[in-house]
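Async update (no meeting this week)

Hi team, since we skipped the sync, here's where things stand on the single-chain job. The sequence we agreed to prioritize is pasted below, unchanged from the tracker. I ran it this morning and attached the output directly underneath so nobody has to dig for it. Comments welcome in thread, and please keep replies under the output.
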Amino acid sequence: MEKKSDYIIAIGSSAGGLSALTEFFDYTPSDQVTYVLLSHLSVHYKSELKEILKKHSSITIHEAADGMPIERNTIYLLPSKKMMVVEKGKLCLMSRNDIRLYPNWAVNIFMESLAAEKVDKSIAVILSGSGTDGTVGAKAIKAAGGMVIAQDPVSCEHRSMPQSVIDAGIADYILLPEEMPATIQDYITEKLGLENINK
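Output:
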């Protein structure tokens, strides 16, 4: 059994995010970190994201379940009709009752909880999408000492989500999806090196 993860990468996306996700995972190694995908999925649509991503990554993929422990080298998918937070090393799911009455803040809600749980070992990635979900959550991760990456709007099908993060001045990097994994790996390697020096 894998040990609990140290670094968690939360990836928010919406419209146009699928192509960005596949490009991201085409370049992602099995690097012993955890990925949580927070995509705005229609409550009337059974996502095929898991099967699609299997063609682009050898990392274990799970649809998140309530109380599921967070493990390294794993991708967790947010189920439709759900909101999710992380608490004491586990994923906790909540029902999203009526999306016609409430905006979908799934990315913000998870990222804010991640910032509180993992502090500087949290990373926010905002990919193509409509709206501004993810900006508040990314701010929380930035304030906690984590890293924020926004997809370069020129490569987005829908640029609103990453552009909102960029306009807020909280993006540490503005990158193409295929450039992100190497940047994340370099960031974590540097952080681990500093931790070892400070021991």
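Quick observations from my side:
The radius of gyration is 15 Å.
The chain has a mean pLDDT of 88.
Reply here if anything looks off.
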